[in-house]
């Protein structure tokens, strides 16, 4: 079976799917129709999706889709660096710069699931050094920061716009929720996956 490259598409989602397919082919991996559809759904939704949301969307297209099928596709896409697993909101989002610079920070809106991918190696090194001073070692290459996106900040009543805890944002690697950790965190601007691409 030969894999000939698809002609480039003009829409952003189509172009990103073509890049993903080319990356997989270059690595000797196959972006099957199911894997491609899961990635397409994440790209088209423009925000993070929980597993049951993905399964429902898959069943609209493939009525027989079962949870193991979706989870296997998600595992493959994560292994290939095409999506991110977001512990902060227990969901997945498409990587909008697959094959490009690695993302050190994922800024996750805890209200709507929007994600900004940020690459700031200097900040990541500084964070790793500070963590090392505590005797801990970072065990993930990406740090999630819980925040409120601009749209969700505008929806909040005046006086509830930000909720800083001692001026420090909270980064989580373990997926545990902190009830008090619902505030906005200042972060460097990055790629927004909450809008059209």
Automatic annotation (TrEMBL):
Cofactor needs: Mn(2+); Fe(2+); Zn(2+)
Residues that, per the record, bind Zn(2+): 109, 112, 149, 152
Keywords per UniProt: DNA-binding, Iron, Metal-binding, Repressor, Transcription, Transcription regulation, Zinc
Record flagged with keyword Zinc: yes
GO biological process per UniProt: negative regulation of DNA-templated transcription; regulation of secondary metabolite biosynthetic process
GO MF annotation list: DNA-binding transcription factor activity; transcription cis-regulatory region binding; zinc ion binding
Region ranges (Disordered): 156-197
Residues bound to Fe cation: 103, 141
Similarity comment text for this entry: Belongs to the Fur family.
The protein, known as: Transcriptional repressor
Organism annotation: Bordetella genomosp. 9
């Amino acid at each position: 079976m030969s894999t000939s490259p698809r002609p480039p598409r003009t829409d952003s989602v189509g172009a990103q799917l073509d890049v993903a397919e080319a990356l997989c082919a270059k690595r000797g991996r196959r972006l099957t129709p199911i894997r491609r559809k899961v990635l397409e759904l994440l790209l088209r939704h423009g925000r993070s999706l929980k597993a049951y949301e993905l399964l429902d969307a898959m069943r609209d297209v493939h009525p027989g889709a079962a949870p193991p099928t979706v989870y296997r596709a998600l595992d493959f896409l994560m292994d290939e660096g095409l999506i991110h697993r977001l512990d902060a909101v227990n969901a997945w989002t498409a990587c909008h710069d697959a094959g490009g610079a690695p993302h050190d920070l994922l800024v996750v809106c805890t209200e709507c699931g929007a994600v900004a991918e940020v690459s700031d190696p200097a900040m990541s090194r500084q964070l790793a050094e500070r963590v090392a001073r505590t005797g801990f070692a970072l065990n993930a290459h990406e740090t999630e920061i819980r925040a409120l996106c601009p749209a969700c900040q505008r929806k909040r009543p005046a006086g509830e716009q930000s909720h800083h805890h001692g001026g420090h944002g909270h980064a989580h690697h373990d997926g545990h929720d902190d009830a008090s950790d619902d505030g906005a965190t200042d972060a460097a601007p990055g790629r927004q996956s909450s809008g059209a691409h």
